[in-house]
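Hi C.,

You asked whether I'd gotten around to modeling the 104-residue construct. I have! Everything is below, sequence then structure, no commentary in between.
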Amino acid sequence: MNEFNEYVRESFSAVGDVVIRAMMGGYLVYFNGKLIGDICGNELFLKRTPTSDRLLADSELRYPYEESKTLMHVVDSFEDADLIAELLEGMYAELPERKAKKAK
């Protein structure tokens, strides 16, 4: 895991459990078991929810990778711990539960 990924994990872990997993050349970011975003090329992209749209209204919206179907917020500020807490807690409440894996 690179320095940027570790920085994101440390910044978010004050609020809850953060797991960053390698996936197809990038990384998936999970917060308390829910997928909240991607890290691609040392940039954090968070999913759009009512909370992220409100709190990150000034952030750039981009697709995290070529052929992505999801427009996401680019996050570049991690110093405001209160904002991070409100953002992650709000997103967690708004994102769907993780789907259970089907038994084989």
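If it helps when you're writing up: The helical segments are 3-13, 50-55, 81-94.

Thanks,
B.
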